[in-house]
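Ligand: 4'-deoxy-4'-aminopyridoxal-5'-phosphate. Inputs:
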Amino acid sequence: MPIDKTDKIWMDGKLVAWDEANVHVLTHTLHYGAGVFEGIRAYKAKNGTAVFRLTDHMRRLLRSAKILMMDVPFSVDQLVEATKETIRANNLEAGYIRPLVYFGYGEMGLNPLNNPVQVSIAVWPWGTYLGDEGVLHGIRVKVSSWDRIDANAYPPQMKSTGGYLNSILAKLEILKAGYEEALFLTPNGYIAEGPGESFFIVRDGVLITPPTSSAGLDSITRESVMTIARDLGYEVREQDLVRSDAYLADEAFFTGTAAELTPIREIDDRLIGEPGPITKKLQETFFAATKGEVETYREWNEYV
Ligand code: PMP
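Predicted complex:
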């Protein structure tokens, strides 16, 4: 989906014109992928534009930075305020928010710590990630032949720019094979997550998702959906799954900021089917929560 240009991008404390939001070609992060970022959505909600769990996303950004020993010169509160300021400056009603923390220009080589730590926040309008059709009828998924990065090689719990090379390899593989999204296994053979989504199945009325030790990213949508499911009275388990558990699921879906809640129709050509009743109920409640329509989850709506 092409980026829909807006007016201003926040860079290191200042709003700059979209076309002038540039970096030097010797920017350190551009060479080695040592940067961290977030993906956040703003929704047109009941009382105006509301960013979904903005503070939690900025907390995770600083946690990712800590693993990489990046000394970010802004606090969570400052980043939250900067995001709201950027949305207001662009008159954005709803869309995507992309904060990036990177090592700038200064020194080349594998020790990044002598470079300035820089931060940008861009916002633009954005629709569904895996297609409107996918949200309604589910997508076709294939297990990738690429393993998910191992926690002791490259922590998938850190939302790093370089880590997405692993996701890109899986995405390219399954797109070329004619599927819509990939599913990763860990090096131990357990189901991990999608290249940009968390994975859930429903079996005998119980919702099951891999624990974060296997799942990778400590996903905010995953946690929101687990909370919604428990509040609706469903049993939720965090449990390691193997690929046959996925084939034999009654229902399956991906969650994530970009994917929101996208049902899965097929896994490795085994039919799961049209979205089932629990998937639909969770989807409906999740979308209502993002739009500020559910009183219980009002604190997730951070109004601009
Ligand atoms: N796993 C991966 C690998 C992701 O990139 C994402 C998207 N950030 C997710 C899961 C979902 O995380 P969240 O719900 O916080 O967007």
